[in-house]
Design goal:
With 472 residues, the protein is α/β, with parallel strands linked by helices. The protein is built from 16 helices and 16 strands. The chain has a ten-stranded mixed β-sheet with strand order 3-4-2-1-5-6-7-10-9-8, with helices on both faces. It has a six-stranded parallel β-sheet with strand order 13-12-11-14-15-16, with helices on both faces. The protein binds adenosine-5'-diphosphate-glucose.
Length: 472
């Protein structure tokens, strides 16, 4: 069996459970297969102005069957590659937020520089029959850089965030360069069929790619396979996590403290894609339109700090605080605070207990690649008395989770109505929907995702040596 090499911006120790969809999912995979995980160490090397820092050595660490190999970044590279291009351009555009993108011309050279550096550091660690799996928008050109160095291994790419329609993609000044870089991969995976459709339309219209059938596309003298591989969670592990004392204590405390009330739960990274202000406005509408919920319903919103040094994130924090404050000011009472908002991360071992205490989960992103919170909420429920999932139709998860109450988060009134429906839903209906949702996330879990992707990657035609490597 070939060794698996995973490459992602951040590397997490697979022996520890870390917050963050990607880290959790990859830890599951590598713990089972062993192999190499390569990426940024998370460390930024500071130097005096005008002094170029020496290039980082590769730091190696062994974590059970997995070797972790990481490199540091200089301040300049980090700011241009991570804050600038990845999170200041690609993240907003791919979440349809052209208004928030910062198209500074300097960022792309930093992005390319870091991808080249990653390729230079990774190439000597590779073995001829390795299977390489590169993750996410930070590293789109990495395969092309590896190919330019002569790497002929099978290389797959998975995009964790959405791929927007071609005209939105085309707003990125270097969009053609980015999409061309995708053709250095043998397999490109997306979260949803909607993303795959956007890819199909883009490459046919902008790159004049030839469609060869079975997801195969030919352009730039290379052939790739593209497919939808919706990421899942480890359902059994999450259910087991829910039985630990911290989780049980969390559940019991919440249900005791809010014994007279119904709980709406929101758990997100504080990111403009997650639709938090829209959610608050829908909750305000619920209290206005259905006054029977006053004094009886509390929204617990946990928003973990995220990318605080990226400019576009400052506004969302202030907007959210002000919306929560005004709802509490307008509707609250001496013994009832309608919204409990916490700007923090919940320890993973307590998360299932928090989800299980919720009568309704509000997962209402404006755009989301998948959204694992929706799946975790389902896994955490008591099947005999489950909570209800209110899910944005713009989350990738909506393609699979059809028995959730699907909403358009831009439509405040309709979202308020959906929350009311969820709060009122009879037990029989809740059980029926939950059983169907649980069956889906069990069938299409993280192991299924990983096996499907790796099987599709090993089925791609091996890159013939001497093939015309795509040069950027
Ligand atoms: P994220 O945008 O980070 O991931 P998501 O899928 O919601 O989004 O995953 C978040 C993970 O972090 C979940 O495991 C959740 O439990 C945890 N988390 C979120 N907020 C938390 C909080 N306040 N406290 C503790 N834990 C918290 C990206 C894409 C998603 C895609 C994933 C995986 O944006 O669309 O689902 O990658 O591919």
């Amino acid at each position: 069996m070939s060794r698996l090499v995973v490459v992602s911006n951040r590397v997490a120790d697979p022996r520890k459970t870390a917050a963050g969809g990607l880290a959790v999912a990859l830890a599951e995979v590598l713990n089972n297969t062993g192999g190499l995980w390569f990426g940024w160490s998370g460390k930024i090397v500071e130097t005096a102005d005008g002094v170029t820092p020496p290039e980082s050595p590769v730091h190696k660490q062994h974590a059970g069957p997995v070797t972790l190999a990481t490199v540091d970044l200089s301040r300049e590279d980090h700011d241009a590659y991570y804050l600038g291009y990845a999170n200041g351009v690609l993240w907003p555009v791919m979440h349809y937020r052209l208004d928030l993108a910062d198209f500074d011309a300097g960022y792309i050279s930093g992005y390319r520089r870091v991808n080249q550096m990653f390729a230079r550091k990774l190439a000597p660690l590779l073995q001829p029959d390795d299977i390489i799996w590169i993750h996410d928008y930070h590293l789109i050109p990495l395969a092309a850089e590896l190919r330019a160095m002569g790497c002929g291994q099978r290389i797959g790419f998975f995009l964790h965030i959405p791929l927007p329609p071609p005209l939105i993609m085309a707003a990125i000044p270097a969009h053609d360069w980015l999409m061309r870089a995708l053709f250095a991969y043998d397999l490109v995976g997306f979260q949803s069929h909607a993303d795959l459709l956007h890819f199909d339309r883009y490459v046919q219209a902008e790159a004049h790619a030839e469609q060869l059938g079975n997801g195969r596309y030919r352009a730039f003298s290379r052939t790739l396979v593209a497919g939808a591989f919706p990421i899942g969670i480890d359902v059994e592990e999450f259910i087991a996590l829910g039985k630990n004392p911290e989780s049980v204590e969390m559940h019991d405390r919440m249900r005791h403290d809010y014994a007279k009330r119904k709980l709406l739960i929101g758990v997100d990274r504080l990111d403009y894609s997650k639709g938090l202000p829209h959610r608050m406005r829908a909750f305000r509408q619920l209290l206005q339109q259905y006054p029977e919920n006053r004094n009886l319903t509390t929204l617990i919103q946990i928003a973990s700090p995220s990318r605080e040094t990226v400019l576009a994130y400052g506004g969302i924090l202030r907007e959210l605080e002000s919306l929560c404050g005004s709802i509490n000011g307008d509707f609250g009472d001496l013994d009832w605070m309608p919204v409990r908002y916490m700007h923090r991360t919940v320890a993973r071992k307590r998360l299932p207990g928090l989800y299980r205490a919720g009568h309704v989960a509000l997962v209402t992103p404006l755009r989301d690649g998948m959204n694992l919170v929706a799946k975790e909420f389902i896994a955490a429920q008591d099947p005999a008395d489950p909570g209800v999932l209110v899910l944005s139709r713009f989350a990738g998860a909506a393609e699979q989770l059809k028995e959730a109450i699907l909403v358009n988060p831009y439509d405040t009134e309709a979202t308020a109505q959906a929350i009311q429906l969820a709060l009122q839903m009879p037990l029989k209906e809740r059980r029926r929907r939950h059983a169907a949702l649980l069956a889906t996330i069990r069938r299409e879990d993280v192991h299924w995702w990983c096996q499907n992707f790796l099987a599709a990657l090993s089925e791609t035609e091996a890159a013939a040596s001497g093939a015309p490597w795509l040069r950027l």
